[in-house]
Amino acid sequence: MTSRQARNEVLETAPTSADAASPAVPVPESDELPPYLESALASLISEWHDPSFTVTPELDSVTAARHFATRTLGGWDMGALADDVGLVVTELVTNALRHSLPPCPKAAERTSIRLRLLRQYSWVLCGIMDAASSAPMRREPDFVAETGRGLHLVDSFSARWGWRGLAPGGKVVWALFHVPA
């Protein structure tokens, strides 16, 4: 998916007839994670986490988020992950912009979507936090529809992914990437 396609998806949120043909299925919330991943996820969602990027409801925010992620990986000497992480960031930020922002543009300006990255040894954890508490919805791939394949791409390009609700509201959708040997 190109940044232009991602920007267009953010702007075109009305479902098409093809979208209606493939029912969405909620993804179960992540639980029973291995201890290392549970600890990393807790660190990722903590208030004092760096590096962090705030996504704004603007046309270029998807591209800016992807560039932030790839620059951060380059600084960590993990450039081998840049393509996979960049693609997943594009999909997750696009989903957050499409599904978590309120319909009122003024309210959307005050809603925060945050991208955070956490590096541990030979892996990177990426998280997108937004204000919506609803589960991500996966659709069966429909090769005619213009949308609906994002979570399948996240599943394909990350080692593991999921989501978790946040208190007092909102959620984090996360993806784990292993550095190639």
Automatic annotation (TrEMBL):
InterPro entries: Anti-sigma-factor_SerPK, HATPase_C_sf, HATPase_dom
Keyword terms of this UniProt record: ATP-binding, Kinase, Nucleotide-binding, Serine/threonine-protein kinase, Transferase
Gene3D superfamilies, per database record: Histidine kinase-like ATPase, C-terminal domain (3.30.565.10)
Domain Histidine kinase/HSP90-like ATPase, first and last residues per copy: 56-175
Stretch list, region Disordered: 1-32
Low complexity bias: start-end ranges: 12-28
Short name of one Pfam family: HATPase_c_2
Record-linked SUPFAM superfamilies: ATPase domain of HSP90 chaperone/DNA topoisomerase II/histidine kinase
UniProt keyword annotation of Nucleotide-binding present: yes
Biased composition (Basic and acidic residues): 1-10
Record keyword Transferase present: yes
UniProt protein name: ATP-binding protein
Native organism: Actinomadura craniellae
Source lineage: Bacteria, Bacillati, Actinomycetota, Actinomycetes, Streptosporangiales
